[in-house]
Amino acid sequence: MLRQALLVASRSDGVRRVLETAPFSSDMVRRFIAGETIEDAARVTGELTGEGLLVTLDVLGEDTHGKGRAEENTQHYIELLERIGAAGLGTRAEVSVKLSAMGQTFDEDLALNNAYRICDAARSAGTTVTLDMEEHTTVDSTLRIVHQLRRDFPDVGVVIQAYLRRAEEHCAELAYEGSRVRLCKGAYAAPSAVAFTDKEEVDKSFVRCMKVLMAGRGYPMLATHDPRLIEIAGALAVLHDRDADSFEYQMLYGIRPQEQRRLAAQGAQVRVYVAYGREWYPYFMRRLAERPANLRFFMRSLAGR
Ligand code: FDA
């Protein structure tokens, strides 16, 4: 119930306006978001890569409704990629892109074109792009765009959300040579007609998807903080004789940082998803919805400011 309420609030402009007027006043916000500027992102990327972790950078912003705004978001990614290239970080830092920030909501061709330009900039920087998966209503459009981009950029990554009933089928279609697939549980509200709503069912689906991806010929990116699923991932890697560089674990900045370092110290590839920018509200609300106990800490920190 609380999860649903937080996810509904994540789309509320009213609540957003109130909370975003005081950016970064809360430790809770700072826990999950690297900062507001490209300099903040560069600093955190330097720290994480210095510790042997990989990074994927997300410029916050989503659900964009105007062409001008989609262009600004695209330019921001291109600038970020130029910085990654100039710093020689291409092998350690990539970017994650939300197509809704590129115009997908109102013009799929525009989103494709903007994503194409970002992929081009990523290639020049010696790195890759992964397309996030958002609301369940956008899955078909996102997969169409991924297939078109992969004609010219075969290394474009795609996200599959295990809570969707079609997830296993999509994993089977995507488990081909060179295909980079990030598997996560899924962070948005979705009706039971299309998604598993019971946590156990979602976890079981994650395991089925992971089995398909780890047995396949692609490059699985296992995005979870769940200790049980991380253990199963390790067992599947042994079962399928996968080298440490043939898959990676992924976690969000601010969540289980010690586990990120523990896995990396064991020789695993671990990529941290680092979000930054001024439009932190919907991303932050999804982090609260994943663990409603976070809400208590957040309310306390707001009361104390
Ligand atoms: P689960 O929620 O069961 O958490 C397992 C444990 O992790 C918890 O017991 C707790 O210890 C810790 N934890 C998890 N979330 C926490 C939080 N918010 N605060 C504190 N502790 C927390 N989703 C999506 O729909 N589209 C996408 O494109 C992506 N992309 C993405 C990239 C990467 C790299 C990651 C790691 C995740 C995503 N997600 C996502 C989010 C994903 O769908 C999911 O909501 C979160 O990862 C939480 O699910 P877990 O698998 O961690 O399990």
UniProtKB/TrEMBL annotation:
Sorted UniProt keywords: FAD, Flavoprotein, Nucleotide-binding, Oxidoreductase, Proline metabolism
Instruction: Give the residue spans that cross the bilayer.
Output: none
> Which Gene3D superfamilies does the entry link to?
3.20.20.220
The reaction(s) this protein catalyses:
L-proline + a quinone = (S)-1-pyrroline-5-carboxylate + a quinol + H(+)
| EC numbers | 1.5.5.2
Q: Which cofactor does it need?
A: FAD
Cite the annotated pathway.
Answer: Amino-acid degradation; L-proline degradation into L-glutamate; L-glutamate from L-proline: step 1/2
* Flavoprotein recorded as keyword: yes
List, for all copies, the residue spans of the domain called Proline dehydrogenase.
46-298
Superkingdom to which the source organism belongs: Bacteria
What Pfam families does the entry give?
Pro_dh (PF01619)
Q: Which PANTHER family match?
A: PROLINE DEHYDROGENASE 1, MITOCHONDRIAL, PROLINE OXIDASE
Q: Quote the protein name from its UniProt record.
A: proline dehydrogenase
Q: Which organism is it from?
A: Actinomadura livida
